[in-house]
Amino acid sequence: MNIQTPVRLSAAEEALVSQLESTGATDAAERLRVIGLPTRRVESYHYTDLKTLLSAVPPLARQGAGAGAPAIDIPGAYRIVIANGEVQNTGTAPNGVIVSKVAGATLTTRDDVLVRLNAALVPESVSIELAGDVETVVHIDRRMEGEAAHVHSGAKIAFAPGSKATVIETVSGSDAGHMGNAGSYVSVGENAEVTHILVDLSASQATHFASLEYRLSAGAKFKSVVINAGADLARAQIFAEFTGEGAHGDFYGLNLVNDGQHKDITLDVTHGVAHTTSTELYKQIARGRGKAVFQGRINVAQDAQKTDAKMMMQGLMLSDEAEILTKPELEIFADDVVCGHGATCGDLDESWLFYLMSRGISRTDAETMLIRAFLEEVVEAVGEEHVIEALGGVVEGWLGKAG
Amino acid sequence: MKYGAASGPETKMTTPLLEIRNLHVRVEDNEILKGVNLTIDRGQVHAIMGRNGSGKSTLSYVLAGKEDYEVTEGEVLLDGENLLEMEPDERAAAGVFLAFQYPIEIPGVATLTFLKAAMNAQRKARGEGELSTPEFMKAIKDASGLLDIKQDMLRRPLNVGFSGGEKKRAEILQMALLQPKLAILDETDSGLDIDALKVVSEGVNRLRSDDRAMLVITHYQRLLNHIVPDVVHVFSNGRVVETGGKELALELEAKGYADFDESHAA
Q: Which residues in chain A are closer than 8 Å to B106, comparing Cβ atoms?
């Protein structure tokens, strides 16, 4: 990343630079002008070469957009809408939940173009504090509405020590070539039991980027689920850090990739202290000429003894042209740890299909049964009944789309 | 009340249910079946006996429509219709059922979900509507009770973690629910202790009827004490080398396969 000679800027890069300048983010603009968008030579973007993939950038979103019906409706959930980056109704929050607006973005500074864009261009963020046993599911409904727009949104979610809660975020909106950039900073207090879910359901012609930052305190029990089921070009970045002993995290994700789409989940988990454990399970499925990317990196700090981390990627290719790319990385500085990773990739098992068909089930139905079974493991991991049902609907929606 | 009773087009009484004529099958470069001839009428139970590797299981897979087998010669007619042209699901709809020697474990697919999908698929193929949940549950309860299958087992993923005996009982449960015209039982006795063998055999015997035929594949005579066949065929080196009544199984048990291999070596 130390290329200091100014690069020849693409149209997309020019547009991004001028958007940054128009909002006074001159440092970020200058940085982008110098290094450009990441190419495959940048390790963390090796499979998602933004310079090549981003051909155009829509104009910055205007505020005041109205929002339609939610993309998924979770019965009994408390919903907060962020339309084109603007935090809308915050209504009456349920017991144990405090909602407010904060100016600007919420992500911690890091050397990443998507994080820098989010930090510079988010107008305001929603701040949600959750305490105690919050039975109501909190739904952050991020919308990209109206004409194609470059939309930045931010959220800061703080789970108090000992709290129990489920927060789901969805990204959806009008049928246009939007480009979204969503950021969430999530802190999980000591001994809190928390689930955080992010689902991209934006229009297929859209591009969507998300950056999630998790801080996990001592004794926390945390679950993260990320599902890419919308935009043609999507990348979700997850930066998780264990900051207190005894914390456990289960990280799940699905890349549901249709013909011609490119979806990326990039995970970076840091076990920064001793006695923390994690599991990572990411599943990818690709049809037609779809491309699915998973990069999973686990960092174990020198003092993080007794870390136990197990990472798994499972891929299912439904055509000869589909591509599934996976790159696990373990960087371990402590000497008393258990860290493992594995990956499987293939098409549907012919002997399974034959067994189902030998009972009269058609090939198409048998395939659907097996794909659903493959994906359900992640959906069921969510635990909360209404959310499982809603995510089951997302999977069914994807299954129902023609290849 | 019968669920999934198979019914095909009107056929003359003279047409056998299954007719295998000069069937040659190869897998990659090996010819496994070398001219099998076999005719089974409705209501009959035929047994095929033969040592391991004689091609018995290949025959069962070819009848059920598994890929990887290349038919190079011969034909198979079910009710006078060309079975070999049908996809496995079409064969099932036409009334063919294979009880697998090694039932496949499918994680993530609940057994009940699978059973309902299978029953409804066959109903659909016959132009009937889907079963209601109460109808389905009653059918399951009746059939599983007779086979000593616990409801808990049916909620587990299909065959996953089932014991050998549970897997075989689950196969017979499927057969009872789907009511095939032609049931092929591939080494159904393997991996069963004597009690389980009894339960499974009784399950099979309950399904014997005038409009259903069975093809029982085994290499032990033991199973045939419980499921008594009308006709016994001895299989060797990819073809039928001897056909007789149920006493042939006893003769085979006493003499061993070697006698048949020698006397019929090509």
A: 352, 355-356, 370, 373
